[in-house]
Every structure is written in structure tokens, then in C-alpha cells.
Write a structure and sequence with these properties.
It is a single chain. The protein has no helices and seven strands. The chain is an all-beta fold. It has one domain. The model has no long low-confidence stretch (mean pLDDT 95).
């Protein structure tokens, strides 16, 4: 299921376009909205566990390990 999400911070991520292609660097601006499937999980960080998600976008690309603190659900 795709959800509309909006980013609360500006940050740079690596976007997966295909297993055969190198990662692409992508700047996401604060306030950017997009539709994505959200696959949540928890990662261990220096300050303790952090809730993150892999985002699978409608254009068939993926952004992995985005902290939930960086985005909010719009719908």
C-alpha cells in the first residue's frame, strides 16, 4: 500500500534504481512530499535503538534506512 509522506528535514540519501546500477545520491528538501510503501524496522545506534524505514517509491526506486523522525504521513 502506498502512503503519501512529507519530509520534515533536508537530507541526502542513496537511492537504489536497480541492482545492476550504482546508487544515486539524492537531496530531499524539507517539505517534499512523495508516495511510498513504508517497510519499518529498528536499527541499533550509538544512543540506542532507532525506528527507521525502507521507502519503496512509485517509480520503482528505493531509499533505505530513513529515520521515522525525518517524515510524517500525510494521508
Amino acid at each position: 500500500m502506498y502512503h503519501t509522506i512529507q519530509f520534515a528535514v533536508q537530507f541526502t540519501v542513496d537511492r537504489e534504481t536497480s541492482p545492476k546500477h550504482p546508487l544515486e545520491r539524492l537531496l530531499i528538501l524539507k517539505g517534499t512530499s512523495m508516495r511510498a510503501q513504508v517497510k519499518p524496522y529498528v536499527e541499533e545506534a550509538t544512543g540506542g535503538p532507532v525506528e527507521v524505514a525502507d521507502l519503496f517509491l512509485e517509480d520503482r526506486t528505493a531509499i533505505r534506512g530513513v529515520p521515522f523522525a525525518y517524515f510524517a504521513f500525510v494521508d
